[in-house]
Amino acid sequence: MREVAVLGVAMTKFGVSDKTNLEMFAEAGLEAISKSSLNPKDIQALFFGNCLGDFEEGQLHMAPFAHAELGLPTGAPATRFESACATATVAIRHAALLVGAGIYDVVLAGGTERAAGMGTPLATRTFAMACQAHHESSAGITFPGVFAMAAHMYAHKYGIALSELKRHMAEVAVKNHYHGSLNPKAHFRKPITVDTVLNSMMVADPLQLFDCCPFSDGAAALVLAEANKARELVEKPVFIAGTGQASAGSLYLQRDLTRIKAREEASRQAFSQAGIGPQDVQVVELHDCFTIAEILALEAMGFYGFGSAYKSASSRETYLGGKLVVNPSGGLKAKGHPIGATGAAQVTEIVEQLRGECGERQVNGARVGMVDTLGGDFGTVCNIILRV
Amino acid sequence: MAAKKEADIRFSKFGTVSFTAITKVNDFVDFLEQGKVMGSRCKDCGLMFFPPRADCHNCLAGNMEWFEVTGKGKLVSYSSLAFAPIGFGDDLPYTIALVDYGQYKVFARLSPGLKPEDVSVGMEMKTVANRLPNGQLNYVFERA
């Protein structure tokens, strides 16, 4: 495999947008190409992420239209990826694999989503389409419900009073809102307190509104190239050190909801390829779709022992300035979660952190960063490790 | 002239809202109407599937028989929902849950008569066939 590097990265502001999916993606894509000292004609393939464009805009088959908006050459194939919330990460991983394999030298990857525009009941329904339709969706399953089940089980398994666990979970939201307050692109830029979380309305017991990430609109894109070409074009290429992806079927196939097996396997693959371990990582953008999800992710990736990550935010170890900075962008919780774009925004944040471009939320001395994205009810996990 | 073959859409009777009417294991719905919750078992290797499958990945074949989901399983976890997807709002609040029978697991709701405060992780549960107020069929968990 050839070494692969990230060149230009870009994301729109996340939140509620009055632009179309294609307009948002064009904005991010053109900026990423421009920052790479390239022109659209130089792009050899587009790896395009979108989940729910058919429900959001009545628009399927968006990849070739995105290709046209960006003015890419006819010979550059545009392909749509869909892996629920892990969509863009899976698109980027496959882009990296094909550049690594020597099929392409320079490609564009990313994603776009207009989730906020659907409104909560339809968005809840369409998101639940990522659960098994015959036996799970037909019972009215929701994603908050899935992670709420994980929270109940975590409290029981590790003998923690639910009220105590909820306080520590709330601290995760407080941290990510604090980080989001430092990110001009974040959906939410308002700091909150533990009381904000614990006084918010119940969504799926024990998860309250502020335990949950929002439905957001946004897009993000990045250019990937063979490493020597990247060194010629940009001052600070960031290299892909390792990737991993694993699959695990639907919720009814899971025995222990506190152990996300696909993540344990995907992160093992990524660490193995990179030849490093969790102790070598300084900054992580991980899948905090719910507060409990950040805790589960930290354990599955090996940053904490099982049953011990619930205090990670309360102890401030995962804050800016802590020993492992988790979600300095604000995470899905505060930066927002336009599902088809999320993974590309996570990579964007890690790349900018490793380049020292993050201003107030800069993780000092970051040399290795990791991206973690989960799709569905534990069915897909994709990890990417980046280094300077 | 031969009559047009009717599509087998029995699965449309399953769930508060059925999104997928067709499956190879549609007899599942007839059993449910008789009050039986059934899974499928491979006659060659004995692997048990719930929800039922038509093909066994272990034997790469479809030599299956039905078995009834009986006895007790352990409650893996649960959550009572305050918000539902479109089409499920009239059912709120309802509690989703996962029950582990060892060789297979069952995802469903708690019986409407069972409150979330009445259950705890690890509790023994049973799975029973149920008819919803809108006439649809499903299966729910009750205390074993």
Keywords for this structure?
heterodimer, A: 388 residues, alpha/beta, Peroxisomal Thiolase, Chain A, domain 1, 10-stranded mixed beta sheet, 13 helices, 12 strands, globular, B: 144 residues, 5-stranded mixed β-barrel, 3-stranded antiparallel beta sheet, 1 helix
Structure in a nutshell:
The complex is a heterodimer of chains A (388) and B (144). By secondary structure, chain A is of the alpha/beta class.
Describe the structure.
The complex is a heterodimer of chains A (388) and B (144). Chain A contains 13 helices and 12 strands. Chain A has helices spanning 21-35, 53-57, 62-69, 87-100, 120-128, 143-157, 162-181, 194-198, 227-233, 261-274, 291-300, 331-334, 342-354, and strands at 4-11, 46-49, 78-81, 106-114, 202-204, 207-208, 217-226, 238-247, 283-285, 325-326, 368-375, 380-387. Chain A is globular, with a radius of gyration of 19 Å. Chain A is α/β, with parallel strands linked by helices and 388 residues long. Chain A has a 10-stranded mixed β-sheet, with helices on both faces. Chain A starts with a strand and ends with a strand. The mean pLDDT of chain A is 97. Chain A folds into 2 domains: 4-119 and 216-239, Thiolase/Chalcone synthase (Peroxisomal Thiolase, Chain A, domain 1), CATH 3.40.47; 127-214 and 241-387, Peroxisomal Thiolase, Chain A, domain 1 (3-Layer(aba) Sandwich), CATH 3.40.47.10. In chain A, helix 11 (291-300) links the parallel strand 9 (283-285) and strand 10. Chain B folds into 2 domains: 10-68, no CATH class; 73-143. Chain B is 5% helix and 34% strand. Chain B has one helix at 27-33, and strands at 38-42, 48-49, 64-68, 73-81, 94-100, 105-110, 124-131, 137-143. In chain B, a hairpin with a 5-residue loop joins strand 7 (124-131) and strand 8. Chain B is globular. The termini of chain B are far apart. At the A-B interface, helix 5, helix 6 and strand 5 of A face strand 4, strand 5 and strand 6 of B.
